[in-house]
Amino acid sequence: MPTSSKSPRLHRAWLVAGVSMLTLVAAAGFGATPGVLVTPLQEEFGWSRSTISLAISVNLLLYGLTAPFAAALMERFGIRRVLVAALALIVVGSGLTVFMTASWQLVLLWGLLVGLGTGAMALGFVATITGRWFVRHRGLVTGVLTAGGATGRLVFLPVLATLAVGSGWRSASWTVTIAAVAVIPLVVLFLRNRPSDVGLAAYGATGNEPAEPVQHPAAGRALATLAAAARTRPFWLLAAGFAVCGMSTNGLIQIHLIPAAHDHGMSEPLAASLLALVGVLDVVGTVASGWLTDRVPAPLLLGLYYALRGGSLLLLPSLLAAEPHPSLLIFIVFYGLDWVATVPPTIALCRTHFGTAGPIVFGWVFACHQIGAAIAATAAGVIRDDLGSYTLAFTGAGLLCFLAAAASIRIPSRPAADHDEGERADQAGEGTDDHDRRVASGSGA
């Protein structure tokens, strides 16, 4: 039986959160790497930006589609096994990239293998860790762990860009491989699946929290959860907003800001440093967002974040130049504070409306995020090849952010009234078990 969560010593949840943070830092660095490879690959192999962007789109798409299944696999087989397998895929994919000679190999290695590996360490992992190990300070810890992505960009991007320019892009790929190998022992030694594995309750638990759901086959549980959640309005509003979030961050700025700045005469290491500065500010913005999520209605936060991002993107085409000037730095500040500030309120709304299935539901919402990212990565490359600039891509994404803001403020802060919940539960009950009916109704939040 788990003991009380109160202890004179530091609760084990904080150690788990620390190791999870390091894992997320590494995963973010792996995911950001393609952004510094676009120009070197184009120069060495003569591939167009749209061709390179296709491989990156596959990576982003699988990164998202893996997330809900990874969350279910973590329930079935444990967090450590899933993360070790994911890191092994990254080691193989990144390591073999240095030997590639054709663009289809880039799709296979960075698109397929690295995409699957990083997807298993995506934000669904954050939802799983915070949902199991924390009751008190859950929103704050979610913000801190989410900021691990920003820290990963901060640590990796300038280093990888400098390596790609000075020693060749293969050095950058080898760096990712070595980093993935280094994370594996930390996961094996220190991560545990649940507090009960070490005789503890979740940090801040009172005994009144919803019970963990019964285990189902991973794929079936992920799909059944999607089927039930898709019958609800909050799911589609969250998914639509998060798809635009993916378009405007991972798919557009993370992949194309460096080559766009290079088009205006800026060096790649300098452009990568600006993107890393976004990461520095994102740490502040995301931690603050986690704190605010515990205090302010999440839909209002999402609406504000998307609106600020939209305004920043509309200004970006006029700000790029060979050297960063004050106006561009103002963009970096706003965009950095806003980068993944959307994650804590989105995770909170998934748990509010879908209870203990919240991490898997968030996995599907995050899949929509990455579908949007994949579309934007390819579309921006095509726009650049056809029109000679990224202006249309940036302004189009900005307008979509305003639509996402409008959708987000329409999400209920709390589950619907009992009558509506019962109606949704009856609808979801056809062909699903009692747990899936709770998913559709949002009970247990």
UniProtKB/TrEMBL annotation:
Sequence segments annotated as region (Disordered): 414-445
GO CC annotations on file: plasma membrane
Protein name: MFS family permease
Subcellular location as annotated: Cell membrane
Coiled coil start-end: none
Keywords: Membrane, Transmembrane, Transmembrane helix
UniProt cross-references to SUPFAM superfamilies, sorted A to Z: MFS general substrate transporter
Any GO MF annotation of the entry: transmembrane transporter activity
Source organism per UniProt: Actinopolymorpha rutila
Biased composition (Basic and acidic residues): 416-439
Mode of membrane association: Multi-pass membrane protein
Major facilitator superfamily (MFS) profile domain mapped to chain residues: 15-416
Database matches in InterPro entries: MFS, MFS_dom, MFS_trans_sf, Proton-linked_MCT
Keyword hit for Chaperone: no
Transmembrane domains' residue ranges: 12-32, 52-73, 82-102, 108-128, 140-165, 171-191, 235-258, 270-292, 304-322, 328-349, 361-383, 389-409
